[in-house]
Every structure is written in C-alpha cells, then in structure tokens.
Amino acid sequence: DRFHIWLMPTGRERFWCRRCERKGLMSELHGLSSQPPAQPQTNTPYEPAPPPQPEHVPQYRRLYAIVASWAEAQLRSPWNPDPLRYLHTRGFDNEQIGWARLGYALNDPASLVAHLRCHAPLLLPYAGAAGLVTQTLNGVLETHWNLRGRIVIPYQDRGQIVDLRTRRFPGRGYTSLAGSYQARGVSTPLCWDEARQSEIVIITEGELKALAVTAAYRRGLIIAPALAHPGLSYFRSEWATSLVRAGVRIAILAYDARLDRPVNQAGEQELAPEERWTIRHGQSLAAAGLQVRVLDLPLAPGAIKEDLDSFMLRAGPKALSDLLLSSAIPLSVFVSRLPPALHAQAKRVANEGVRPWLR
Fold it and tell me: What is the pLDDT of residues 294-328, one digit of tens each?
C-alpha cells in the first residue's frame, strides 16, 4: 500500500511512493532501470539530521542559497546550452534570468552531493530534511530525483532564498522538493517581494508564467506583478491577509484558459480545475478584504489552451496590460457567466470554502 500508480491519462501515468515520497511519471521510473547502479561512496558516512524542524529552517535556507548558486553556474555552462536555450524560448533574456536567479540542476545523482561535501560539509546533514538529497537502500547519498535534469526556480523573500521549485524540460510539469512546505519554512508564494510594492497583483499557477509577467512589470511594461503558488490547489488563506496588510487592494486571478471543460461519466460538463480553484481562492481573497477580479485569457485561433506567458509572448506586454485593465471582471460576474448547468456546482465549490458568499 505504499506504492501508488495512476494509469490515466494514457501516456502520462504517474506513481507515488509513500515511504520515500518519490513521485513523478512512470516513464521516468522506467528510465532509471536502465542506468548503471551508483558506486558506493568511500568518504565520511552521512549522518542525517532529524526530519524538518522549525529551528533548522536557517540551515535549510543556507543550503537553498548554495544550491541556487550552483544551479546558476550550471545553467551558463557552454557545454550544456539546452537549458539556457529553453528559457530563451520562454521569453526570458539573460538579465531577467539573472534577476530571477534561474538555474539548472545536472541530471546526475552525484554532482550536487559532491558540491555540498566540498562547500558546505557542516550543512550536509540537513540536506535530506531540506529535500535536496536522498539515501539509497545501500547507503549511497544522491541528489534527490526532483533536482535532476530540471530548471531550478528559487523562491525569494526579502532577498533570501526560502525554497526551490523545479521545471521539467523538455516535457511539462513543475516539481517541489520533498517534504512539507510549512515544515521546511516556506511561507510566501513566488515574487512576494514585488507584490508587496503594488496595489494590484496577478495570481497564477506556474512559476515561469509569474516570473515572465513580473519581469515585464519591473521594466514598466505591465501594470502589476504576478504571484505564483505551487499547484492550483495550494493557496494559503493567510497569504490573502498578508497582501491586504502590505497595501494590496486588487487581486486578479489569471489561471490558464481552456477551450473545453471535462465531462463526467454521465456525459455532463463539469467545472474545469481552473474554474473550480478560481472560485475557491477568489473566495479566500475576498474574505480578507481584497477586490477580486478574474481574467479569462482569449485563445489564439485554433488553440485549445492559453496561459499568461504564452499570451504575452504572442501579443506583447502592452496587450496583456490592456486586457488586465479592460477585461478582468469581478468574481461574482465570472460565476454568473458560467453555463446555467454549472451554477449548482459553483455554489457547492463556494460552500466548501472559507465563506459561502454565493448562497
């Protein structure tokens, strides 16, 4: 019962091991079977610290800063141009990449461990609880698989790196470090520093989307910065209160736009995940006193999906800024425009949330 497998959708089968917390695509798991076994390490035995503890958060953050610097250096290595080229195709130039401190983690189980042994040996015992390394059954210390062959995206709060997220490439999907966000001391969404300086914030899911928009905001090309939270469902209600205390007045929810909604076994349409979480998170934001708006991005001709950064790449920052000013509608209007058959679903979603304001 510790190993779970999800077989749908076909071609994107996923797994989750409850014992070691490893999770991902089955194709990745199969690919590991063809790799040669790691060689036993001959240096000082690894003695891990306890599971995440609040008093150890400063050590975790020092490790995240070291790993971020290591990943930045790997991203700019001339012998491996693909990660940097990928970020350029996503619309980032080198100055923006440097501001965001984006990096690349080598697809190698030993290199990061060797780097930490050399540059932070006293912090290495905390690396497991920080979600950076894992130990194999035969005792070999390796870089955690969520940090191998991925774009590294640091979460920063007042200039301090408080967490790392990763992005697959090629391929799709973000990955978190192992363990609980709260246990590792992660208390803010991405681009929090910029959000505290604006009366308007855009809220989305997907770190590169938020970074692209916020980079444009920093250059004066768009009206507001964007926050990103790790996954549609993960939005902490206290963030809404913190935004109000920082002077934010308006929150614009801007999740991906899709052509079609899912259909249940009875053949009936259901709310798309983005619609469901727009209602839930919008309710949390409104309960804290924020004016909530919803941006429904227009689809390109023939497209089935649209998101913030792809729209900005296609139409330009000014078009996105104009759209935010002209087309972001109140949350209540967004709900009223749903097909009548979905109103009951929307009301149920609202009633599950913080305050049943749609009753």
Answer: 998 999 888 899 999 999 999 999 999 999 999 99
In this prediction the pTM is 0.84
Evaluate whether 260 touches 304 at the Cβ level (below 8 Å).
Answer: yes
Question: Collapsing DSSP states into helix, strand and coil, what is residue 151?
Answer: strand
283 within 8 A of 350, measured Cβ to Cβ: yes
Residue 284 main-chain phi, psi, to 5 deg: -65, -40
CB contact at 8 A, 339 and 269: yes
186 or 351, which is more confident: 186
Do residues 135 and 142 lie in contact, with contact meaning Cβ atoms separated by under 8 Å?
yes
Structure tokens at 31: 């690919």
pLDDT tens by residue, 337-349: 999 999 999 988 8
d(CA 225, CA 198): 7
Across the chain, what does the average pLDDT equal? 88
Buried b (16+ CB within 10 A) or exposed e, 247-264: ebebbbbbbbbbeebeee
Compute how many other C-beta atoms are within 10 angstroms of the C-beta atom of residue 280: 18
